[in-house]
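---------- Forwarded message ----------

FYI, see the Microcin ABC transporter permease record below. Original note from H. follows.
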Amino acid sequence: MLAYIVKRLLLMIPTVFGIMLLTFTITQFVPGGPVERMVAQMSGYGAGGETGGGALYQGKRGLDPERLEQLNRLYGFDQPAMTRFFRMMRSYLVFDFGQSYYHHQSVVQLVISKMPVSMSLGLWSFVIVYATCIPLGIAKAVRAGSTFDVATTTVLLIGYAIPGFVLGIVLLVLFGGGSFWSFFPLRGLTSDNWAGMTLCHKVLDYLWHMVLPVLSSTVGSLALMTLLTKNSFLEDIRKQYVITARAKGLSDHQVLYGHVFRNAIIPIITGFPGSFITAFFTGSLLIETIFSLDGMGLLAYQSVVNRDYPVVLGTLYFFTLLGLVSRLLSDLSYVLVDPRISFESQG
């Protein structure tokens, strides 16, 4: 097991290096970088955010070369590309992601400031999906082919077919003070007078604001997880050991939760570590825009549009590491929940 973990950790190094090198190379050829945007604005062109070649060319032509050199030095573009890349990777090893060009603050502080929204959407969605899909999937497997199974599958597939942002707009129109009822707030995580509330009222106010965004971002995931749970349990229910257990006189409840459950739950549980970790950093641009939430999705979009390379590359590095670690934890969870699996035999 230890050898397998060390091998996977060592393989992460070239993987991360390759992803960062590819992304860094692409950014070198994307027009309208931070220096060009600043030049265009200082020259009176592209003040509205245009990054086209015409505005860029006119801006460069109207700026003093010495001033242009100062801007290149300010953004670190006075050094060769490979020098800047290796310097960046050296800083990333200690999680120093530098300063944002657009927001003018530390990338780490910027990401932390967006975390409340991302954690709220991700964690609540994670809890609701697992708490709903496992019991519902088991119930569907036990009642496979029944009216309950068909009806719930139909509802789940309809929810899966509706995009989250479309559902969010419909919910706002129906329940957010649109054309019908005003049961839930339109925007934000909390009310304007949240600071003056008691602790109990703060919790209720926060949960009140989370209902519509979490519902919009969760419905699409319910179908996949529920059907995965159903199919996993249905496959085990039909196996020979279940017939043998029933022949010994065990009740359906004892067979289901004493034998089937610990085998059929493996595919669901093994995805738990990765889903739990990524839930802290999940972001949805459309959901955040619809409900006026300033989270990771909106930050990622703004960073790409404004060529905010420290944020783009820094968050990519962090999320790549996070994804690789979550994959490793998912693989290790197979061994923890199923003793029959051993990575040592793969050697």
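H. also flagged this: DSSP finds 16 helices and no strands in the chain.
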